[in-house]
Design goal:
InterPro entries: LHFPL. Helices cover about 50% and strands about 15% of the residues. The protein has six helices and nine strands. It has a five-stranded antiparallel sheet. Strands 1-9 form a two-stranded parallel ribbon. A hairpin with a 3-residue loop joins strand 3 and strand 4. The longest helix is centred in the last third of the chain and has 27 residues. The radius of gyration is 23 Å and the shape is elongated.
Length: about 230
Amino acid sequence: MCHVIVTCRSMLWTLLSIVVAFAELIAFMSADWLIGKAKPASSEDVDNRTGGSQEPYHPTLGIYGRCTRISHMQFSRRDTLCGPYAENFNEIASGFWQATAIFLAMGIMILCTVAFVSVFTMCVQSIMKKSIFNVCGLLQGIAGLFLILGLILYPAGWGCQKAISYCGPYASAYKLGDCSLGWAFYTAIGGTVLTFICAVFSAQAEIATSSDKVQEEIEEGKNLICLL
């Protein structure tokens, strides 16, 4: 018989697992890893409503995508265009970034799998006599290691030609040049830290769902058990 067990710690672990998976996925897909040096406003960058020139634009560069400004001469305005600069894996600007993409993708796949499984831990707490919380915690730890490897390798690719075109000639491995780090990089770091927190907290979720109070509720014949 299925017993739905909801505790404060298990629910918090589930929510954190979902948040971490989405945060890493969004960061990976974003083009805001590097913020390039400002492009000076030209005569075409004129705000028709105020008559003044617009602020200089900062193009952004991701692992496989970028955002830049394109001009529409017919309408005398400019729009921001975001999308992948690489049509396939081999066209990613740096071998280090290719490795980063692999490690991040592996970590994110594991985190998404754990996030999906975590939803069902309210009803199923073990499989083949193994605690799902402990297994998921182990997987999250492995995912965290993949994410760390990806984030360590990423700055090594700052010396590629693509990065230099955005960050200037002084950009090199682990040196930003005229660029700055975007929100996606910091989100990936924050998600990695939370991944290890989730891995540790999974043990607390397992303890909460197998506590004496839960066993007492089960022995009383309750199918829905909610404990703080």
